[in-house]
Amino acid sequence: SVASLGAIWNFADLSMGMMAIINLVAILMLSPIAFALFKDYDAQLKAGKEPVFDPSQFPKLANKVDPKAWPKKP
After folding, report:
1. What are the pLDDT digits (tens) for 7-18?
2. Which residues contact 51 (CB under 8 A, 6 or more apart)?
3. Count of domains in the chain?
4. What is the rounded end-to-end Cα distance, in angstroms, of the chain?
5. Which of 9, 25, 51, 65 could serve as 55's disulfide partner, Cβ 3.0–4.6 Å?
């Protein structure tokens, strides 16, 4: 199939626009979790600790985080 370059370019623009919209929605949905994690990270740094991720401190993430992926340090 042969299409005009203008039609292909317009379709590419439409596709990129749709991808951008989907990505913006995903960012908005993830931002509350990201801000909570950053706040915890920053608090640990200010307390002079080495920042570690403890999923048990974030109940919203309990069913989304694989416990084997974040083992506790001894």
Report:
1. 999 999 999 999
2. 41, 44, 45
3. 1
4. 62
5. 65
Does 47 reside within a domain? Answer: yes
| Structural domain that includes position 37 | 5-61
CA 49 distance to own-chain centroid: 24
**The 3-state secondary structure of 34-72, one letter per residue:** HHHHHHHHHHHHHCCCCCCCCHHHCHHHCCCCCCCCCCC
Per residue in 5-57, pLDDT tens? 899 999 999 999 999 999 999 999 999 989 999 999 999 999 999 998 888 88
Give which of 49, 51, 23 is closest to 37, Cα–Cα.
51
Instruction: Give the predicted TM-score (pTM) of the model.
Output: 0.67
For residues 41 and 51, the answer to whether their CB atoms sit within 8 Å is yes
